[in-house]
Amino acid sequence: MKLPSAPTSAATDTEPAVLPATGSSGRFSRPVWIGGAAVVGVLAIAAFMLIDDKSAAPAVAAEGAAPAGARPALTVTVTAPRRETLPLAVAANGGLFAWQEASVGAEAQGMRLAEVRVNVGDVVRRGQVLAVFDAAMVKADQAQGRAAVAEAEALLAEATANADRARDLGPKGVISAQQVSQLLTAERTAAARVQAQRAALQVLALRVAQAQVLAPDDGVISARGATVGAVVPAGQELFRLIRQGRLEWRAEVAGTDLAALKPGQAVRVVPAGGAAIAGRLRMVGPTVDAGTRNGLVYVDLPAATAATGARAGMFARGEFDVGQAEALTVPAGAVLLRDGYSYVFTVDAQQRVSQVKVTVGRRVGERVEITSGLQAQARVVAEGAGFLGDGDTVRVVDAPLPVPVPSTVPASAPVLVPASTPAGPSRPSAVAAKS
Fold first, then answer.
1. Closest CA relative to residue 209, chosen from 127, 135, 124
2. Contact 280, 267 (CB under 8 A)
3. Beta bridge partners of 93
4. Which are the contacts of 384, defined by CB distance < 8 A and separation ≥ 6?
5. Which residues have a Cβ under 8 Å from the Cβ of 330 and sit 6 or more positions away?
6. pTM here?
7. Of 392, 404, 299, 407, whose CA–CA distance to 348 is shortest?
8. What is the distance between the terminal CA atoms of the chain, rounded to a whole angstrom?
């Protein structure tokens, strides 16, 4: 078989050699050329995959070794949930009100107010003079009444003398029976007139006494409507008095909790911006509001409540002590509030933390009740949870013990506590992060 001659060098430099297609006469055919190109392509793809495999192997090995070399995000102290007996309480809100209020008004009619001796906030005693009216006109009427009584008594004396003579002379026939009857009737009329004048004098004396406005009970003046110089009608309120200075808390309690409340139970009331006050449940209201489904509960507060800064009309919240129950608790610092929900972080055997959603209940001191969402045997991050994220690796350490101070060291001298330095680059501890 004769092959075609090779192309000249000039042709090789300028144009690529093209093999002519051959037919059945023994020259190269088109299928043979295409098969050679396919073999070259397959070899190229195999070489590329082999190179890519070798370069990816170190990356995969490094990725698999990452967990072994991961550094802890934080040094934390863990604790276990603890079962404790906590008091059961019913929480409620309400307002402070006067235990009882007395309205002090004007009893006299048409007298001018001459003097006001107390003001709002003054502490008064029973019978103390609060205000004085001008009683000059009433005193003049009283003097006139005394004169009328004296006149009536003189007429009674004369009528009594005439009646005595009639009783003497009548039986002797000196005067007629009609005259005797008239004299005896005049005596009785004069006696009745004396009684009437004396009653009128008592009315005038009462009006003079009403010129002084007296406190009906011990207490504190809470309102004043009296103005010097005013002529007030009878019955108009001049002062309002908180009897004995006592306040009470009227709490709104859900109808479902009313069954647990009994008179005499201890109550802890905390006014807005004030200190806690110990009270005693006096009465549970007999009805429940149809709109809110809440009932009113009345709580007596000590007489010295006003000294703590509490005032009538203030808002207050409180808790009713209804017993005790066992609860699962964790430290308050272990509970986080995120997006309106409560969470804790638990630590597994690989020192990784998991964010767990929980439901919290009562809080007593530095302990918080967990009602659901947490296992009793879980390991909970006690400090530093606010700086952690779900899946972080942590270093767990025991809680530091208090260092005893030697007796030879003065109390004012500082106590140095050596800090342990972990190997390798350190991460901030929970205490340092908090400070």
1. 135
2. yes
3. 252, 317
4. 74, 75, 76, 77, 429, 430, 431, 433, 434
5. 79, 81, 82, 344, 367, 368, 370, 374, 380, 382
6. 0.54
7. 392
8. 95
DSSP designation for 403: P
Cα–Cα distance measured from residue 104 to residue 175, given in angstroms and rounded to the nearest whole number: 62
Length of the chain counted residue by residue: 435
Strand pairing report for 394-397 and 74-79:
parallel
Q: How far apart are the C-alpha atoms of 4 and 20, rounded to whole Å? A: 9
Q: Tokens in use for 401?
A: 């013990």
Helix, strand or coil, per DSSP, at residue 219: strand
Q: Hey, what are 235's tokens?
A: 């019955």
Residue 362: both structure tokens together: 């009562």
Q: Which tokens belong to 377?
A: 């045997």
Q: pLDDT (tens digit, 0 to 9) for every residue of the chain, 435 residues total?
A: 444 444 444 333 434 444 444 444 444 445 544 556 665 665 666 555 544 444 444 433 333 333 445 566 678 888 888 888 888 888 899 999 999 899 999 988 888 999 999 999 899 999 999 999 998 888 898 899 999 999 999 999 999 998 888 888 878 777 888 888 888 899 999 999 999 999 999 999 988 998 999 999 999 999 999 999 999 888 899 999 999 889 999 999 999 889 999 999 999 999 988 888 999 999 999 999 999 999 999 999 998 787 778 888 899 999 998 888 888 999 888 898 888 899 988 988 888 888 889 999 888 888 888 888 888 888 888 877 777 888 888 888 755 544 443 433 333 333 333 333 333 333 343 333 333
* Count of C-beta atoms within a 10 Å radius of residue 364: 15
d(CA 123, CA 120): 9
The C-alpha atoms of residue 102 and residue 244 are separated, in whole angstroms, by 10
Residues 6 or more apart from 285 whose CB is under 8 A from it? Answer: 295, 296, 297, 298
Which tokens sit at 427? 């991460």
Angle at 216 between CA 215 and CA 218, to 5 degrees: 75
DSSP assignment of 307-324: GGT--TT-EEEEEEEEEE
- Got the DSSP string for 324-359? EEEEEEEEGGG-EEETTEEEEEEE-TTSBEEEEEEE
